[in-house]
Amino acid sequence: MSSQFADFPFLRTRRHVNQRKRVSKALRIPMIAGGATLAALGIKRRSLLGAGMAAGGGVLIYRGITAKGAWPSTLICVRKSVTIAKPAEELYRFWREFENLPRFMRHLQSVRSSGGKLQWVSSGPMGKNFSWEAEIVEEREDELISWRSLPGSQIENQGVVRFQATPGDRGTEVRVELLYRPPAGRVGAAFAMLFGEEPEQQIREDLRRFKEMMEAGEIPATDGQPHGRRSKVTTLLKSVSSFGRSDEEMKAQRVVS
Amino acid sequence: MKALCWYGKEDVRVETVPDPKILNPHDAVIEITRTAICGSDLHLYDGFIPTMEAGDILGHEFMGEVVDTGQEVKKVKRGDKVVVPFTIACGQCFFCQRGLWSACDNTNPNAWMMEKMYGYSGSGLFGYSHMMGGYAGGQAQYVRVPFADVGPLKIPDGVPDDKVLFLSDIFPTGYMAAENCDIKSGDVIAIWGCGPVGQFAIRSALLLGAAKVIAIDRFPERLQLAERGGAETLDYSRCDDVVEELKFRTGGRGPDACIDAVGMEAHAASISGLYDEIETRLMLETDRPMVLRQAIQACRKGGTVSIPGVYAGFINKLNFGAAFAKGLTFKMGQTNMHKYMQPLLQKIMDGAIDPSEVISHRVGLRDAPRMYKVFRDKQDHCTKVVLDPRAA
Q1: Residue B43, C-beta contacts closer than 8 angstroms, at least 6 positions apart
Q2: Given this model, what pLDDT does residue A3 score?
Q3: B54 to each of B1, B126, B291, how far by Cα in Å?
Q4: Residue A195 clears pLDDT 50, i.e. is over it
Q5: Which residues of chain B have pLDDT under 70?
Q6: Which of B37, B205, B249, B288 would you call most buried, defined as having the most Cβ atoms within 10 angstroms of its Cβ?
Q7: How far is CA A21 from the centre of its chain?
Q8: Whole-number pLDDT of residue A155
Q9: Per-residue pLDDT for A131 more than 90?
Q10: Interface-testing mutation among A225, A237, A248, A256, with chain B (most B C-beta atoms within 10 A)
Q11: What is the reported pLDDT for B216?
Q12: CA of B388 to nearest chain A CA: how many angstroms apart?
């Protein structure tokens, strides 16, 4: 299966994935979102009617998740780019040390490279970790690195990052293309969608942190600063929506030495 | 420490919260000696700015003494007296390098929120919603300041706080609004709103060589202050048609540039005012652009409309046809603070301007919640409230 997947040309796959996404978004996401809202409203009521609403919401969520047909994230293709005011060779060198990636990729716990192979560990929802092995497919100095997961990996994926000088001396355009099958099948994807952990957004944020580290020498952070009493709703929403490492956990790695 | 926290519309309280600490290597912690309530804080008080959370510490105009610095801070040190700009900038990115400091790419941890609303994110701001970074503000005893070598401006010994405090926002903001008018010899500038930013815009326009400044407001004490600053005044509540009056006073040409120092919470006793009141109540628009409409209408052909007043969302029935027909230029945005602080400090030291003249109230931090209301309702001739967190 994974060798098949690795053969998909990027562009064709992207169109293919997007079509699936549209169909399922029309049906499934409203079902799940509506179900969640109904359930939340029901729970808030604390009455017989409320219990009924909560149960109905639960059914909607279940149906949304388990419905037959294409699930939007069976195969995900992400393309993002960012411009960084640094020379390509500096950015390439930093990225090529794969051990550096968790310093700006919030969901990566670690990357270890040994004997031409890369061992990746990533955090997922509910404290679950995922790991996989990958190999470098191609590398062109100061220009491009591409990799793909080895057969039997928990997360099948392949990716490429390109570094290209911008016109007019504005630095380097860094383009990432990533193709992957998310972990834990439907449940993992449902969690990711419900709580806003969209892969596009993840990659966007990772690239932003890469830029911040390389340009400003630190990643801006506000976790750990003082505030007055937060409302219970805010605190609850934050605790269920965040996975990956906190600012605090990433802090030790935040500075470019 | 004590800090003023936001809990909702018209609900701000002084609470005891933990002291701030260094979180990043370029941070400093500052003990605040003076802070102020800004007109734009009233937009938070009135619940106009999205992405606020209960418990957020407000305040973006402040100064004080450095008490702690991160390991990468080289220029400022413990004991330095500094004024801190309300925009946070890294100093390294494309925008900072070109003087567009308030568009800094690297200082908003919640940039994605602003990107969702506006397409791209500007710099982080102190005490001004999570969309703008969620940084704790300075209406408090202490504050954490990121990129301490880039923003804070050192103040020489012996200069009173009240004279330099407004370098943190409103003086540069009024100055940039005037500079954006690209003032040439003989130019007449009309300024809507004689609050603190309007006052600094008046004085800055004259410093930059304007022949005449016409200041528009309805509060007598604010008009008097404008007059003291060298402006000719226009009380719109005693005037049937502001646009006609401006035309009359400019020999039929119209002002060469118009400054909207009011922003999205404008008030007007007119059909247009009633229209916006209804639309915002019905959530059909979020901002009330009465002043902007008038400024566009009044401005001479080929003139400039400069907007230091804050807008946050959507506006309806904007007379864009008039703007097009006259070929107007629009200049606006958060102030590029870092560019103006040093030169404006020099102007204060030279005695060209004394910013403390806009202060109407000096109180302790404890009284801040009451003063928000007084300032918002313009009671007690309130033009500018300065808070002393060291006072009891």
Answers
A1: B49, B263, B264, B265, B310, B312
A2: 35
A3: 18, 16, 31
A4: no
A5: 268-272, 283-284, 392
A6: B205
A7: 17
A8: 76
A9: no
A10: A225
A11: 97
A12: 20
Query: Half-sphere exposure of B214 toward its Cβ, with a 13 Å CA cutoff?
Result: 23
**Residues A217, B91: contact at Cβ < 8 Å?**
no
Tokens of B272: 């247009």
pLDDT at B193: 96
Distance CA B298, CA B290 (A): 12
Q: What pLDDT does residue A74 have?
A: 62
Distance CA B244, CA B236 (A): 11
Quick check: A19 pLDDT over 50?
Answer: no
Rounded alpha-carbon distances, angstroms, from residue B380 to A67, B138, B333: 65, 25, 31
Do β-strands B142-145 and B124-125 pair in parallel, antiparallel, or remain unpaired? Answer: unpaired
Query: Which of A205, A221, A229 has the CB atom closest to B112's CB atom?
Result: A205
CA distance B184 to B179: 11
ipTM of the complex model: 0.90
Q: Please report the pLDDT score of residue B392 as a whole number.
A: 61
Closest listed residue to residue B30, CA positions, set B157, B150, B177, B143: B143
Instruction: Answer yes or no: do A85 and B56 touch at CB < 8 A.
Output: no
Could you report the per-residue pLDDT of A78-107, keeping only the tens digit for each? Answer: 899 999 999 999 999 999 999 999 999 988
3-state secondary structure B348-383: HHCCCCCHHHHCCEEEEHHHHHHHHHHHHCCHHHCC
Distance (Å) from the alpha carbon of B106 to chain A's nearest alpha carbon: 5
Tell me: pLDDT of A11 over 50: no
Residues B365, A78: Cα–Cα separation, whole Å: 49
Backbone angles phi, psi at B63, to 5 degrees: -150, 165
Residue A228 contacts B, CB cutoff 8 Å: yes
Contacts with A251 from chain B: Cβ below 8 Å: 23
Q: What is the 3-state secondary structure (H, E, C) of B26-93?
A: CCEEEEEEEEEECHHHHHHHCCCCCCCCCCEECCCEEEEEEEEECCCCCCCCCCCEEEECCEECCCCC
* Distance between A13 CA and the closest CA of chain B, angstroms: 26
Taking alpha carbons only, the member of B67, B65, B96, B98 closest to residue B83 is B65
On chain B, the residues whose CB falls within 8 A of the CB of A237 are: none
Global confidence as pTM = 0.85
Structure tokens at A103: 């310093």
Q: Between A86 and A19, where is the model more confident?
A: A86
**C-alpha span between A211 and A217 (Å, rounded):** 9
**Amino acid (one-letter) located at A108:** L
